[in-house]
Amino acid sequence: MKRSTGLIVLLVILALAVAFYAVAAVIAKREEANSQEPEETLIPIVDKKPEEVVSLTFESKELSVGLTLNEKGKYQLTTDEHFPVDQIIASYMIEGAALIECTRKLEGADSDPATYGLAQPSAVMTAVYSDGSAVTLKLGDYNKHADAYYCDVGDGAIYLIDADYMGAFDYTVKDLLQDDRITEPKKGLSAITTFALAFRDGSGYTYGAVTEDDEDGEGKIYWNKLIDGTPVEGDFTEEVETLYKELFDADLDEWADYNVTGAERLGAFGLAEPAVTVTVRYREEVTVTGDDGSSVTKEVEKVVGFLIGDVVPAEEDGPADSDTPETDATPDASDKEPEEEKATLRYFMPEGGKIVYLLDEADLATALGLDTEPTA
Predict the structure, then answer these.
(1) Taking the mean position of all CA atoms in its chain, how far away is CA 145?
(2) Other C-beta atoms within 10 Å of 282: how many?
(3) Angstrom distance (rounded) from CA 97 to CA 102
(4) CA 306/CA 250 separation, integer angstroms
(5) Which tens digit of pLDDT belongs to each residue from 236-245?
(6) What angle do CA 82, 85, 90 make, to 5 degrees?
(7) Residue 110 binned pLDDT confidence (cut-offs 50, 70, 90)
(8) From 7, 50, 127, 230, which residue has the greatest number of CB atoms within 10 Å?
(9) Half-sphere exposure (CA, 13 Å, Cβ side) for 57?
(10) Using 50, 70 and 90 to split pLDDT, how confident is the model at 39?
(11) Contact call for residues 346 and 312 (beta carbons, < 8 A)
């Protein structure tokens, strides 16, 4: 009898444990579901392929640009067909015009656009597509809680568009310029045989590579310097290494003008008769394939040149305002923090290019022996 009672008690305990487990599992699943954020439903406004975008204009405080697809399938500036547009940067903007998805449509939104900053939008994007359709998107105020901008696409509704959308247009017109590519020897400095420097006054000199056997009998390259064919005593390897770096690793982020051709335009930057012309000769292996499919590898001499122009004139400080009265709060000269010294800029162009760049590399002037003081 006692044994039967004990068995019944065990069965009851087991049944309760199973019930508690089932209830706990249900509660756990419910808590997991509650902790997950609901998936965001995107509202498609425009869903085109990038190649369907015929033209694009974007206006904001930071950027004003128009892009048009030309007959070659490339995007060009609407206002200047000669501007060398970086097609990769342009493609980011075009993708922003091809796919527009909003995160939310405001129900019962106030009809006054000023409520959302749309009366004076922070940006306006207009795109025209190959099927003849078009859209104008106006961006209003930023909603920090939603991390989104209010926007209007002209259908009478107010939408929220993810703040990341603006990344497609986070550029300047200067960013849109396709920089020149400086051809660097595949084997670097070791492939170069000479650096010839010709100065505006008719003087010049040449750095030449010389190979000598070291103590171990292995070839070692060092650089000499020739002026009018006469060797200058010393090893100029350090100067050549600096010159190579400044020329072939030149930072081409800043430019002064583009499509610069002809003596008159080049002369405005001191490039018609450069302050210094650097001609670099190097050896490189190339493979030539014949009509019969056979190929042969041979070493050829290649030449690349660099033009260094005038120093960019320093901006002059404006005249002092003599009518401004001095007060106790007016700092005297001893109280003023010293102004940060401005880097010297010089016009620079790879030979055969059309873009004039600005270099602020002090080592360049040192390596070339140039005067860094602005010309009169």
Answers:
(1) 31
(2) 23
(3) 13
(4) 11
(5) 999 999 999 9
(6) 145
(7) low
(8) 127
(9) 10
(10) very low
(11) yes
Q: Is 158 exposed, middle or buried (0-12, 13-18, 19+ CB in 10 A)?
A: buried
And the tokens for 91?
Answer: 């493609």
Query: Which residues are CB-contacts of 22 (< 8 A; sequence separation ≥ 6)?
Result: none
Candidates 374, 355, 296, 14; CA nearest to 174 is: 355
Token readout for 54 is: 């015929």
How many residues make up the chain in this entry?
A: 376
Tokens encoding 176: 């849109």
Separation between Cα atoms, residue 371 and residue 348, nearest integer Å: 15
Handedness of CA 223, 227, 232, 234 (dihedral sign): negative
Residues 6+ apart with CB under 8 A from 11: none
**DSSP assignment, residue 145?**
T
Distance, in Å, from the CA atom of 226 to the CA atom of 248, rounded to the nearest integer, reads 22
- State whether the Cα torsion 137-142-145-147 is positive or negative: positive
d(CA 215, CA 20): 86
**Does the pTM of the predicted model rise above 0.90?**
no
What is the number of other CB atoms lying within 10 angstroms of the CB of residue 99? 16
Instruction: Quickly list H helices, the chain.
Output: 2-35, 87-98, 237-248, 263-267, 362-368
Q: How many helices (H) and strands (E) does the chain have?
A: 5, 19
Handedness of CA 270, 271, 272, 273 (dihedral sign): positive
Q: At a CB cut-off of 8 Å and minimum separation 6, what does 264 contact?
A: 272
